[in-house]
Design a protein that fits this description.
The chain is of the alpha+beta class. Helix content is about 25%, strand content about 15%. The protein has seven helices and eight strands. A hairpin with a 6-residue loop joins β3 and β4. This is (diamondback moth) hypothetical protein.
Length: about 300
């Protein structure tokens, strides 16, 4: 609640209940979690007709701070917001305050990001000559009451410079067409000696290998084990030992084999018990945490 006169020694709970009663909402103390003024006091400005005299002049001489109210249920908040819009133009008269009456404004309290976003939406609304803009449950209804538009979606359209209002004053909601992926096409001509296609390959991760084993041992085992399983022995195109970030008592390898032979190496019956294997997904990125100086207390 903004523009509500602030006085010394005021009771925020009593104030919010009085405002709710003025708006026609039956609000109880059990519906309010907290009610308090936020921000620094501003004594530089003064409301028109406010002489600054009276019991509350010390706090109410400047622009009053917003009164932030946290309610127990969303339904109570929606009821209060709806009543404030219906009774637009309500003032602080008859609230038992000594200062001159001021118009009361009731709005949702937004986060810093949403507040900045809503400010940009209002700027766009002024350019488009929208009459009303407000927030409700993170959405911004536009000038046509039959259409609502998410604020993030609205800003996406505004950033790209597209008009989002038609001639009748309604918001145009257009879904962005999905991006078409460029699909590769494969040649069908017979193979030629002057130009050959590369053999499709895949990488296989093999771990928990004994520390005494070397590249030759793995190459020999794969060649002997694949006899009888395929028409031709599995051809290992490349083999690389992987370095572990931690000290281990075993070795890990990355094997590159033709794609049509990967099923042989991904079979449980192919490897000895205790060996771990799978498709190689790439090395994990390690994030080094910053050093923290510790002190004994």
């Amino acid at each position: 609640m903004t523009n509500l006169p602030e006085e010394n020694g005021e009771n925020p709970m009593h104030l919010i209940l009085s405002v709710a009663s003025k708006l026609g909402v039956d609000l109880h103390e059990s519906d309010v979690v907290s009610a308090e003024r936020v921000g620094a006091r501003n004594r530089r400005s003064r409301a028109p007709g406010d002489s600054g005299e009276g019991a509350g002049a010390g706090a109410g001489a400047g622009r009053p701070r917003p009164l932030v109210v946290r309610l127990t249920r969303r339904a109570v908040k929606d009821e209060l917001m709806t009543a404030a819009r219906v009774r637009r133009g309500a003032t602080s008269a008859d609230l038992g305050q000594s200062s001159a009456p001021r118009p009361i404004y009731v709005n949702e309290r937004l986060t810093k990001t949403n507040r900045q976003l809503f400010y940009k939406v209002r700027e766009a609304g002024r350019r488009e000559s929208w009459r009303f803009l407000w927030t409700k449950k993170g959405r911004t209804p536009g000038p046509g009451h039959s259409a609502t538009l998410d604020t993030h979606w609205l800003m996406t359209l505004l950033v790209f410079g597209r008009s989002v209002v038609d001639k009748d004053g309604f918001i145009l909601v257009e879904k962005r067409s999905p991006r078409r992926r460029n699909r590769n096409k494969r040649g069908t001509a017979p193979a030629a000696c002057s130009l050959k296609a590369a053999t499709p390959t895949v990488d296989i991760y093999v771990s928990r290998v004994h520390a005494n084993m070397a590249h030759d041992n793995i190459m020999r085992y794969i060649k002997e084990r694949s006899v009888g399983r395929t028409e031709q022995p599995v051809q290992v195109l490349a083999i690389e030992r992987l370095q572990s970030a931690k000290q281990t008592d075993f070795k890990s390898f990355r094997l590159r084999v033709p794609a049509d032979q990967q099923k042989v190496l991904l079979n449980k019956d192919f490897w000895p018990a205790g060996i771990v294997f799978r498709r190689y997904r790439g090395a994990k990125k390690t994030i080094k945490s910053p050093a923290i100086n510790s002190a004994r207390v």
